[in-house]
Amino acid sequence: MLDTAPSPSLDDGTTLFIGGAWRSAAATYERFDPADLDRGTGTFAAAGAGDVRAAYDAAETAGPGWAATPAPVRGEVLRRAADLLEARVDEAWRRLTADMGKTARDARGEVLRSVAILRYFAGELSQPSGETYPSADPATLLMTVEEPLGIVCAITPWNFPSAIPTWKLAPALGFGNTVVFKPAEAASGSAVLLTAVLQEAGLPDGVLNLVTGHGRDLSGALTGDPRLAALTFTGSGPVGAGLRAAVADRNVKVQLELGGKNPAIVLADADLPDAAAQVMRGAMIATGQRCTATSRVYVERTAAAEFRELLAGQVRALVVGDPYDEATDVGPLASAQQLATVRSYLDLARDEHAEVLATGTAAQAACFVAPTVLTGVDPDSRLMREEIFGPVLVLQEVEDFDAALAAANDTEFGLSSAVFTRDLGRAMAFVRGTRSGIVHVNRETTGGEPHVPFGGVKGSSSMSREQGKAARHFFTTSKTVYLRAT
To answer: Where is the Aldehyde dehydrogenase domain (predicted)?
Structure first.
């Protein structure tokens, strides 16, 4: 059993981690448990521009030494971090649930996913690096070597408080970069814990720097520092576009993951009970707060009546309630603001006379909302076009596969998609024809393993993939070397 040190206290706002030291800021902000808004979950430092400059200063100072550290040694730091996080899994999932309301089972799974990500990238750091090439000069050895980019700014969302920061920080740090880390306000507690674990694992001072605070106040300082080499961001399209524009006139490498409006197609020959269960999970688990969540489902008309009944039964059976209870399937939305957003879409559904096919049950308290399946929605409705980011699914009947594929592709987004069928030919036609970066056959639209690329097309991504070997490509640069013996 590993000895572990407690995370910094969240009672006094000492949540900035800069140059190897925990410190406070001139202002603070409070966070509250979305399952019970009367229950405070921490006081956090609201960083200012000066704190961001200090973080860049620390990252710059630490950069040369960390870049010169052998890759396998950096890998050992990630491996120790994985062990430490696994030893603290109960603390970590409870912290995550307090941050944004994810259920116990889902939150624990997310923390263990973070452990797996750390272990994957620890292993990657012992893999071959660079390439050799034949040269026309027999006396010359021609090769490439990989080098870190420099200082990376990682801006992460609230919906995966542990996994998304980990899949950015692990490769950024592992491949020799230093990092300025800005989490979403609602994920501040989990960010403090993850930073503490990485530091305890052996990161030198200044290699990882955490600035908690309000994104609207910090974006200029985060993107405006001339020492910034790369920006990795997951969040909304408008915010991502603003960040990209802020660095467009400089040689800053940019990685953006910007959400989705993910479709599932259910064909008449599918295993309908399994398809209903998978679509329900894709739409409702994690309270629909996943960029890969199923938002639209197109069902072949000859199977629509049976599928509707099966899906409705799945949704009505969901246990919505206390996220700390192991029996709960769906917890609250992450915040009162997110609750207001989702309710505005449900109000729109009522105003547009959409049919409510099924609803789950939810307490009329805190940030809870009932999982809802709608049908009879106009294809041009905002309900079909915009990312709701809540447990709201729209079902549409279609004549055949061709109509379903055309409707599925009729969106500005292109992150994930799914088809349910026993016909291998139509499955492969879907794989070729869907306009999404991730494709699932007879699986829900959510989920991803750490060793494969993750990302979308169209409005869902900057086209720079995350995770797997794609992370190596993003977080390093290649140097070509001509080595001639004399």
So the answer is: 23-481
